[in-house]
């Protein structure tokens, strides 16, 4: 199938998505750690539009943006499918993945890094709680985020779940420092 290379950054959930998908598919790849403050010429060549990670290079062809890369991986390596075969279920997986990136992550980040107080702080926290409740209703009774098999939506969500305790600890430390000032 040709050589596979992933340009990423170790703490990036978007890079981790690509790596997890390749591992689920059993695809060997070369990982290239990027310095985001001093991006390599290769990264800029392979992603001249956004100039960011992740970028998957397969047989010399670059693919950028984590959702696009995940779908490319799923379509290229057929074993262990990431997206459901049913078109409606596939659309739902894409919808909830977009919800995760566009609604859930920003709401949780806002709540964790919220420096405001009083009603404004309460509103930010309530917004995050509402988004989390929406997702909770969707996944209730399912073995994995996307259903009974690990797949696309789990890959999108698992990385954020991995980093959530770290973000929480950082936010708690920030609150403790500011309360002592």
Automatic annotation (TrEMBL):
This is glutathione transferase. Residues 2-81 form the GST N-terminal domain. Belongs to the GST superfamily. The keyword Iron does not apply. PROSITE patterns: GST_CTER, GST_NTER. Signal peptide: none annotated. CDD domains: GST_C_Tau, GST_N_Tau. One of its GO terms (molecular function) is glutathione transferase activity. Residues 86-181 form the GST C-terminal domain. It catalyses: RX + glutathione = an S-substituted glutathione + a halide anion + H(+). PANTHER family: GLUTATHIONE S-TRANSFERASE U8 (PTHR11260:SF676), GLUTATHIONE S-TRANSFERASE, GST, SUPERFAMILY, GST DOMAIN CONTAINING (PTHR11260). Keywords: Coiled coil, Transferase. One of its GO terms (biological process) is glutathione metabolic process. Residues 118-145 form a coiled coil. It holds the Pfam family GST_C. One of its GO terms (cellular component) is cytoplasm. It comes from the Eukaryota. Its EC number is 2.5.1.18. It is an enzyme of class 2 (transferase). InterPro entries: Glutathione-S-Trfase_C-like, Glutathione-S-Trfase_C_sf, Glutathione_S-Trfase, Glutathione_S-Trfase_N, GST_C, GST_C_Tau, Omega/Tau-like, Thioredoxin-like_sf.
